UniProtKB/TrEMBL annotation:
It holds the Pfam family p450. Belongs to the cytochrome P450 family. PANTHER family: CYTOCHROME P450 YJIB-RELATED, P450, PUTATIVE (EUROFUNG)-RELATED. It comes from the Bacteria. Keywords: Heme, Iron, Metal-binding, Monooxygenase, Oxidoreductase. The keyword Heme applies. InterPro entries: Cyt_P450 (IPR001128), Cyt_P450_B (IPR002397), Cyt_P450_CS (IPR017972), Cyt_P450_sf (IPR036396). CDD domains: CYP105-like (cd11030). The lineage of its organism: Bacteria, Bacillati, Actinomycetota, Actinomycetes, Kitasatosporales. This is Cytochrome P450.
Length: 401
């Protein structure tokens, strides 16, 4: 018997075996306990949290910081956490500075504001369905439907020209999947320069959307620096298109894998909101967000997290915790629980969740209505999982009808 197995660091993040759901390996950890020792890619040891109760307690604990410049911040990826010359966006800030910056953007993401976007999102989805039809069958539903919808919507919310979408989609992808500090820095600078040119234009001529509004208000009043405004715009642009596109793609694939539930989803609009919550739980696309560093010692579940240690609070294991989601491996659109952590929890809970939910509630039913015979063009078993440290999703999904 191994003498060190009890204290051995567990492997995190783990690669998905099926891109549609978090790795099965997490279930074993959740069964063993809520906190586990882990070794991050820089060799530092820290913790990974695998149960829902402790995940929520820690995500709302002010003794955990989101400061990526702290040497103890968990490094789970070969890409850089900070880029010299580019200030952090508010996802990397702690209160009270975090709240001050988040409030500058919040007006565009309230339930009322987002609900007012519904007719426009329906129009955008309808046009995307037309382009998908023109491209096939068969056609890639990610390139022609899942990606263009959130990408065009976030462009309109921010005031970014959609004609530049290939550039910012590609740069955001390169930032997320960078393999070294240098690669991250080069792509971050490219995107920052582009967004700075939009800020520059808005200072000369009032521009539309949130960027124009922040230029006229917070920048003009000296409440934010131009570099910080660019960081906020970068966060919103990247977070605003990629995760939702991933979710639309995985949502389509998951429904196609469950034909009985797809039939109900199609037939009954009242099922749609609950089904979307279940898709968010099941896919847990932003599984490796929720990274923090302890600023003080924290005792929890009989373990001691020491000040300076990194803590990973992924949402996948919490979303599959059987104490909260009985029979978690079963995809069930009637589960009737919104207690998942797919949008995070605590002060950093997703700012765009109302928008993401609305896009999913519009895009998925519309697609299956316009394409009643939609099906996989290639066997589902052929899906390639992504690197474990990035947001999960399908890069392509070929469908036919
Ligand atoms: C299905 C789609 C989405 C998922 C699964 C998702 C997931 C998440 C998660 C898990 C967090 C918390 C990160 C943490 O605690 O470290 C987060 C934060 C954030 N998300 Fe989303 N997100 C989605 C869509 C969006 C959209 C459409 C926007 C629009 C701009 C957006 C903007 C943000 C921002 C700004 C934050 C940082 C909030 C803060 O630090 O206060 N997200 N998201």
């Amino acid at each position: 018997m191994s003498r060190c197995s009890v204290h051995e660091a567990v492997s995190f993040p783990q690669t998905r075996t099926c891109p549609l759901r978090p790795p099965h390996g997490y279930a074993e950890l959740t069964a063993q306990g809520p906190l586990h020792r882990v070794e991050f890619v820089d060799g530092r040891t820290g913790w990974v949290v695998t149960r829902h109760e402790e995940a929520r307690a820690l995500l709302s604990d002010p003794r955990l910081s989101s400061d990526r410049a702290d040497p103890g911040f968990p490094k789970i990826s070969p890409r850089a956490l900070v880029v010299r010359g580019q200030p952090p966006s508010f996802i990397g800030m702690d209160p009270p500075e975090h709240g001050r910056h988040r409030r500058m953007a919040i007006s565009e993401f309230t339930v009322r504001r987002i609900n007012a976007l519904r007719p426009r999102i329906e129009e955008i989805a309808e046009q995307a369905a037309g382009r998908l039809r023109a491209a096939g069958p068969p056609a890639d539903v990610v390139a022609h439907y899942a990606l263009p919808i959130p990408s065009l919507v976030i462009c309109e919310v921010l005031g970014v020209p959609y004609s530049d979408h290939e550039f910012f989609e590609d740069t955001s992808r390169r930032i997320a999947r960078a393999g070294s500090d240098e690669e991250t820095a080069a792509s971050v600078r490219e995107l920052a320069q582009y967004l700075d040119s939009l800020v520059e234009a808005a200072t000369k001529r009032p521009g539309p959307g949130l960027i124009g509004k922040m230029v006229r208000e917070e920048l003009a009043r000296g409440e934010i620096t131009r570099e910080s405004l660019v960081s906020t715009a970068m966060l919103l642009l990247a977070a605003g298109h990629e995760t939702t596109a991933n979710m639309i793609g995985l949502g389509i694939a998951t429904l196609l894998e469950h034909p009985d539930q797809l039939a109900e989803f199609r037939a009954d609009p009242d099922v749609v909101p609950g089904a979307v919550e279940e898709m968010l739980r099941y896919a847990s696309v932003a599984d490796t967000t929720g990274l923090r560093v302890a600023t003080e010692d924290i005792e929890i579940a009989g373990r001691l997290i020491r000040a300076g240690e990194g803590v990973a609070i992924p949402n996948g294991p919490a979303n599959f915790d059987p104490a909260v989601f009985p029979d978690p491996d079963t995809f069930d659109i009637h589960r009737g629980s919104r207690r998942h952590n797919a949008f995070g929890y605590g002060v950093h809970q997703c700012l765009g969740q109302n928008l993401a939910r609305l896009e999913l509630r519009v895009a998925l039913p519309l697609l299956f209505e316009r394409f009643p015979t939609l099906r996989f063009a290639t066997p589902a078993a052929g899906f390639e999982p992504r690197r474990p440290d990035v947001n999960q999703g399908l890069d392509t999904l070929t469908v036919t009808w």
